[in-house]
């Protein structure tokens, strides 16, 4: 079993729940994190990883047990113990009556969501400070607040739902609509990734109890590291790529009338960036969904070809608001030039959601004709 580390809490180390979670911790020696033994899940695997990203937990030890007396020795306990009390560093969600959700979201939290609720801002602020070498990214800054909500929705909420048995769609509504899957998704989500690291039902167990626990703990640490790597990539993407793209999309959104009087064409100048989330947010703030096509260069270099991409009805939809004309679809180069009546055409995808042209003028002409079609 992993070594125990007993650490007493004094009254001075306790703070109100409204305070920053890391400030409630007495830093110095490593602390002891406790979670349950036995079959492990994605939520506590991620919860442990997230805690260990913070200086106060960087040298934390871990014990996996269901023994209440051992759990009492832990500084922080996740996903076991039947108690949610942030002031005492207890983050379980299995107890009767627990119904806490992330602000603005309907999904009941798991241990991952609870830890992210209390420590996510600190993790994000720390990452932003490293990325920008600035101290302006504090836990209460607008950037951190934006990313806290975004990363919860994009990553952590799925784990909360998985652990609490909440389906993506209402099963009754799906059944009433007579919908059925067309193919298997392979059963490979974040929860499945962690679940597959548990021992198989018929895998021989060690005869010695301590050795059996050691092997189980080693598997858990592998699971925590694996899902932690995915979480870190998610945070890095949103902090260093998605967030800077916001200013680029906003500038293009404000100038879109220069390309179409009704604001239906968005042009990303210089370099393509992740635009969908930001576009939908800007349109929501404006009160109307007007953009049909987004134009951008394939590469940020002189002479690069241009793309024309249709705006989907929603972020994850394959249905475009206004697909490129059916007559153009599946054709390329000179043949497409003749069909579209536009020089420099490169291609239009058979599904009609994207096309290309050798020049910006050609891509804009494609947008203008497609709007009129």
Describe the structure.
The chain has helices spanning 42-51, 68-72, 111-132, 142-163, 171-177, 190-195, 209-254, 276-286, 333-340, 360-372, and strands spanning 32-35, 61-64, 76-78, 84-85, 90-91, 265-268, 293-297, 306-310, 345-348, 354-357. The protein is α/β, with parallel strands linked by helices. The strands form two sheets. The protein has a five-stranded mixed beta sheet. Strands 6-7-8-10-9 form a five-stranded mixed beta sheet. InterPro entries: MYG1_exonuclease. Belongs to the MYG1 family. Pfam families: MYG1_exonuc (PF03690). It comes from Akanthomyces muscarius (Entomopathogenic fungus).
Please supply descriptive tags for the structure shown above.
single chain, 373 residues, alpha/beta, 5-stranded mixed sheet, 10 helices, disordered N terminus
């Amino acid at each position: 079993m992993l070594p125990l580390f007993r650490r007493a809490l004094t009254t001075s180390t306790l703070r109100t729940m409204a305070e920053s979670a890391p400030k409630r911790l007495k830093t110095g020696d490593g602390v002891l994190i406790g979670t349950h033994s036995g079959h492990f899940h994605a939520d506590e695997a991620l919860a442990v990883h997230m805690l260990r990203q913070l200086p106060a937990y960087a040298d934390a030890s871990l014990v996996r047990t269901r023994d209440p007396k051992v759990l009492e020795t832990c500084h922080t306990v996740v996903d076991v113990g039947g108690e949610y009390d942030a002031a005492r560093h207890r983050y379980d969600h299995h107890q009767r009556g627990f119904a806490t959700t992330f602000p603005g979201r309907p999904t009941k939290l798991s241990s991952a969501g609870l830890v992210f609720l209390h420590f996510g801002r600190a993790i994000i602020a720390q990452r932003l400070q490293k990325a920008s070498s600035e101290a302006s990214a504090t836990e209460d800054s607008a950037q951190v607040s934006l990313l806290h909500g975004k990363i919860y929705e994009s990553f952590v909420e799925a784990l909360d739902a998985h652990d609490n048995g909440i389906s993506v769609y209402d099963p009754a509504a799906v059944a009433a609509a007579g919908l059925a899957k067309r193919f298997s998704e392979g059963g490979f989500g974040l929860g499945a990734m962690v679940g597959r690291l548990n021992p198989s039902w018929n895998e021989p167990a060690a005869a010695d109890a301590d050795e059996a626990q050691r092997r189980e703990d080693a598997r858990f640490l592998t699971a925590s590291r694996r899902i932690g790597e995915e979480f870190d990539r998610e945070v890095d993407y949103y902090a260093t790529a998605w967030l800077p793209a916001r200013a680029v999309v906003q500038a293009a959104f404000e100038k879109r009338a220069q390309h179409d009087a009704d604001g239906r064409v968005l042009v990303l100048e210089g370099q393509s960036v992740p635009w969908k989330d930001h576009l939908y947010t800007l349109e929501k703030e404006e009160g109307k969904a007007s953009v049909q096509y987004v134009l951008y260069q394939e590469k940020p270099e002189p002479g690069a070809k241009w793309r024309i991409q249709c705006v989907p009805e929603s972020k994850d939809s394959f249905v475009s608001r206004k697909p490129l004309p059916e007559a153009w679809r599946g054709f390329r180069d000179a043949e497409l030039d003749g069909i579209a009546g536009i020089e420099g055409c490169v291609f239009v995808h058979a599904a009609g959601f994207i096309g290309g042209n050798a020049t910006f003028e050609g891509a804009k002409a494609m947008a203008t004709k497609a709007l009129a079609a």
